[in-house]
Amino acid sequence: MAFLFKRNPKTPQDLIRALNEQIAKLDLGGDNIKKYQDECARYLKQIKVILHGDDENDPQPDQISLLAHEVYSTDCLYNLIYNLKKLDFDSRKDVVILFSTLLRRQIGNASPTVEYLINGKPEILIWLIKGPESSETGLVCGQILRDCIKFEVINRFILVNPLFWNYFKYVQSPVFEIATDAFVSLHDLVTTHKKLVSEFLANNYDNFTTSINQLIQSNNYVTKRQSVRLLAELVLQRQNQYFLNRYFDDTNNLKLIMLLLSNKSKNLQIEGFHIFKFFVAKPKKSQRILDILIKNKENFIAFFQNFNITSFNDSNLIDERDYILTEIQKLPDIERIN
């Protein structure tokens, strides 16, 4: 059995170089493709042992440092992402572990992998952003991307990139798993770093509102509901004040939310209510918003008097409904508008 060990790289640097060599051979294809995949899998398993140890050995910081340096200097992460489709299923999972572990690695206050991704090889982030375009590797790319998003500088990089807006298309993918995963990524991108998101929403109000409203009008129930819930989460954030002021002064938004209240789905009605209540409760309403509320006052009263939400067993929800009903009843009758 001794001959087997001769094939094993002796150092972390050798291991990364050997992995890169096998990745390059994947392009050759042919009858040996399975052999090259198996070799990649073997080396990735050994890398995982260096990073996390095994039953016999604990991870050694100096070995991890050598491995990480070689990963950066040889663009191993780029090679792995670019050739992700050619790796087998287990190897793709190991790539996720490699990324996740290196992202968490810090030297003092510095995050070398984050620095590498932003300033050294941003093409990796571009590939990850485009992940949902592949049904084979989209879920893996999504998982890695969300680990990257935990770092504000990467989150900012993605939000200012025009490719970010593709996520409003990705969440409508006919492949359910891809659409669902893309929505998780979209959610994290616009909720994780509150101050950053507040600036983004303020600078991109028109594009974002148009995009989210299109999703809310989707014929797909899951897309519609997820979109409304995301919007409801954003309007609860006080940091988004500029966005909120514009959103709740926009009559198109009010009309769209009113349609949700009339939806046959009780769940969508509830989701819509969580946004509608802010139009009513806002202390300083624009005249155009006020006119619509007054014009529909009787309809609103009839609706909320019959808005049966007891099945949700939520006393706060009942209190909110009663409060909004009271506020609507306080509105002037339509004859008194002038």
Describe the structure.
- The protein is 69% helix and 0% strand.
- With 338 residues, it is mainly α.
- It has a domain at 231-337.
- The model is unreliable at 1-6 (pLDDT under 50).
- InterPro entries: ARM-like, ARM-type_fold, Mo25.
- Pfam families: Mo25.
Care to give the gist of this entry?
This protein has 338 residues and is mainly alpha-helical.
Quickly list its features.
single chain, 338 residues, mainly alpha, 21 helices, 0% strand, Piso0_000244 protein
Determine the mean pLDDT.
Answer: 91
Q: What's the story with the biggest beta sheet?
A: none
Written as H for each helix and E for each strand, in order along the chain, the element string is HHHHHHHHHHHHHHHHHHHHH
Give unreliable regions as ranges. Answer: 1-6
Note the overall shape. Answer: elongated
Global structural class: mainly alpha
- Total of DSSP H or I helical runs spanning 4+ residues: 21
State the helicity in percent bands: 55-70%
Q: How many angstroms does the end-to-end distance come to? A: 95 Å
Query: Beta-strand percentage?
Result: under 5%
Using the CA coordinates, give the radius of gyration.
Answer: 26 Å
- Number of strand segments: 0
